[in-house]
Amino acid sequence: MPTTSQFSKEDQQFMQLALELAKQGIYTTSPNPRVGCVLVKNGEIVGKGFHAKAGKGHAEVMALKDAGENAKGATAYVTLEPCSHYGRTPPCALGLINAGVSRVVAAMQDPNPQVAGRGLKMLADAGIETQVGLLSEQAELLNRPFLMRMRQNRPFVQLKMAISLDGRTAMASGESKWISNEQSRADVQKLRAASCAILSTSATVLHDDPRLNVRYEQFPDDLKAQYPQEKLRQPVRIILDNHHKVRPTARLFECDAPVWLISSTPRDLADYPANCDQIIVPNHDFIDLPALLRILAERQINALWLEAGATLAGAFIENKLVDELIVYLAPKILGDKARGFCKLPHLTHLADASNWECKQIETFGSDIKLTYYPK
């Protein structure tokens, strides 16, 4: 694979623009990857496009449409290998061939088994110069959820916690509104909107009766301008409910987005709203989390946003299933009787504690947002 140094400065600039275009699909493309494309001819941009929504034109298609006849002889900079298979749209590799582009630079190969190098081969077999690997790290970062599903057959899991300075998430009574401030909660809405699904438990539903939806009114004005409310994609709400405690009257069902109830035994859904479905995960006393994640991957869930209490948070951490830990640290002290961050009953030695690497620190008013990856 070529290194970045083997590409020209202009190549890097145009691929960077393609990556910025791809970011415009963060809130809309799921379950498809976020992809941008720039067409360049004689050093001038002749076409630009990004993939906005599954079933709509892919980035290459939109860029070719923008370029028209100018696409002939152009170089295509695309953030992910052009597809080679027929889905809801024809292969993008074929579209580039038919348009007469002379060169295709891809940031990375597509790990989707339906593509996996076939798109680049199709282009090369047609006599088009192909290169891959330009700004690949940025492209990987942009599509972590999709790549996780393709490579490991499970969603990318983000665990969110709002905690006090002494690591507490709620008072002993369960009172937790609000530990974090309004700016932090607005940031959570943006991250929820970028997720495919929100996972929680029946205990949370029974205690708080939340909707677990994206509250558009909390979006910043610049994001509202980019994404009108009618384009907002509400994530699926997934509730672990092994003992069938969630009732049809829960506020979850007031939002039209799907609700999937997870248990080890089926229930009668006759009285539940039409947006309710159930998933049976074989087991008896607890939900098999790895098995559940495999099922969610089969249902095309790329990014899973985890909002739950200490027990479920601890179970995901203990099973090494958290890919990104997001902590909103509020300047409050709740005391030793307040509820802790997570339960890890099997952890008895400090040497066995999981280690995390801090990747980003942000401030939201008096709150500090800390983003960690597992080491």
UniProtKB/TrEMBL annotation:
<dbReference type="Pfam" id="PF01872">
    <property type="entry name" value="RibD_C"/>
</dbReference>
<dbReference type="Pfam" id="PF00383">
    <property type="entry name" value="dCMP_cyt_deam_1"/>
</dbReference>
<dbReference type="InterPro" id="IPR050765">
    <property type="entry name" value="Riboflavin_Biosynth_HTPR"/>
</dbReference>
<dbReference type="GO" id="GO:0008703">
    <property type="term" value="F:5-amino-6-(5-phosphoribosylamino)uracil reductase activity"/>
</dbReference>
<feature type="binding site">
    <location>
        <position position="92"/>
    </location>
    <ligand>
        <name>Zn(2+)</name>
    </ligand>
</feature>
<feature type="binding site">
    <location>
        <position position="204"/>
    </location>
    <ligand>
        <name>NADP(+)</name>
    </ligand>
</feature>
<comment type="function">
    <text>Converts 2,5-diamino-6-(ribosylamino)-4(3h)-pyrimidinone 5'-phosphate into 5-amino-6-(ribosylamino)-2,4(1h,3h)-pyrimidinedione 5'-phosphate.</text>
</comment>
<keyword id="KW-0862">Zinc</keyword>
<dbReference type="GO" id="GO:0008835">
    <property type="term" value="F:diaminohydroxyphosphoribosylaminopyrimidine deaminase activity"/>
</dbReference>
<keyword id="KW-0521">NADP</keyword>
<dbReference type="InterPro" id="IPR002734">
    <property type="entry name" value="RibDG_C"/>
</dbReference>
<feature type="domain" description="CMP/dCMP-type deaminase">
    <location>
        <begin position="9"/>
        <end position="131"/>
    </location>
</feature>
<feature type="binding site">
    <location>
        <position position="215"/>
    </location>
    <ligand>
        <name>substrate</name>
    </ligand>
</feature>
<dbReference type="InterPro" id="IPR004794">
    <property type="entry name" value="Eubact_RibD"/>
</dbReference>
<comment type="pathway">
    <text>Cofactor biosynthesis; riboflavin biosynthesis; 5-amino-6-(D-ribitylamino)uracil from GTP: step 2/4.</text>
</comment>
<keyword id="KW-0378">Hydrolase</keyword>
<keyword id="KW-0479">Metal-binding</keyword>
<feature type="active site" description="Proton donor">
    <location>
        <position position="60"/>
    </location>
</feature>
<dbReference type="GO" id="GO:0008270">
    <property type="term" value="F:zinc ion binding"/>
</dbReference>
<dbReference type="GO" id="GO:0009231">
    <property type="term" value="P:riboflavin biosynthetic process"/>
</dbReference>
<feature type="binding site">
    <location>
        <position position="307"/>
    </location>
    <ligand>
        <name>substrate</name>
    </ligand>
</feature>
<keyword id="KW-0686">Riboflavin biosynthesis</keyword>
<keyword id="KW-0511">Multifunctional enzyme</keyword>
<dbReference type="InterPro" id="IPR011549">
    <property type="entry name" value="RibD_C"/>
</dbReference>
<dbReference type="InterPro" id="IPR002125">
    <property type="entry name" value="CMP_dCMP_dom"/>
</dbReference>
<feature type="binding site">
    <location>
        <position position="83"/>
    </location>
    <ligand>
        <name>Zn(2+)</name>
    </ligand>
</feature>
<feature type="binding site">
    <location>
        <position position="58"/>
    </location>
    <ligand>
        <name>Zn(2+)</name>
    </ligand>
</feature>
<feature type="binding site">
    <location>
        <position position="208"/>
    </location>
    <ligand>
        <name>NADP(+)</name>
    </ligand>
</feature>
<comment type="similarity">
    <text>In the C-terminal section; belongs to the HTP reductase family.</text>
</comment>
<feature type="binding site">
    <location>
        <position position="178"/>
    </location>
    <ligand>
        <name>NADP(+)</name>
    </ligand>
</feature>
<feature type="binding site">
    <location>
        <position position="212"/>
    </location>
    <ligand>
        <name>substrate</name>
    </ligand>
</feature>
<comment type="similarity">
    <text>In the N-terminal section; belongs to the cytidine and deoxycytidylate deaminase family.</text>
</comment>
<feature type="binding site">
    <location>
        <position position="192"/>
    </location>
    <ligand>
        <name>substrate</name>
    </ligand>
</feature>
<dbReference type="InterPro" id="IPR016193">
    <property type="entry name" value="Cytidine_deaminase-like"/>
</dbReference>
<protein>
    <recommendedName>
        <fullName>Riboflavin biosynthesis protein RibD</fullName>
        <ecNumber>3.5.4.26</ecNumber>
        <ecNumber>1.1.1.193</ecNumber>
    </recommendedName>
</protein>
<feature type="binding site">
    <location>
        <position position="176"/>
    </location>
    <ligand>
        <name>substrate</name>
    </ligand>
</feature>
<feature type="binding site">
    <location>
        <begin position="309"/>
        <end position="315"/>
    </location>
    <ligand>
        <name>NADP(+)</name>
    </ligand>
</feature>
<comment type="pathway">
    <text>Cofactor biosynthesis; riboflavin biosynthesis; 5-amino-6-(D-ribitylamino)uracil from GTP: step 3/4.</text>
</comment>
<dbReference type="GO" id="GO:0050661">
    <property type="term" value="F:NADP binding"/>
</dbReference>
<keyword id="KW-0560">Oxidoreductase</keyword>
<dbReference type="InterPro" id="IPR016192">
    <property type="entry name" value="APOBEC/CMP_deaminase_Zn-bd"/>
</dbReference>
<feature type="binding site">
    <location>
        <position position="162"/>
    </location>
    <ligand>
        <name>NADP(+)</name>
    </ligand>
</feature>
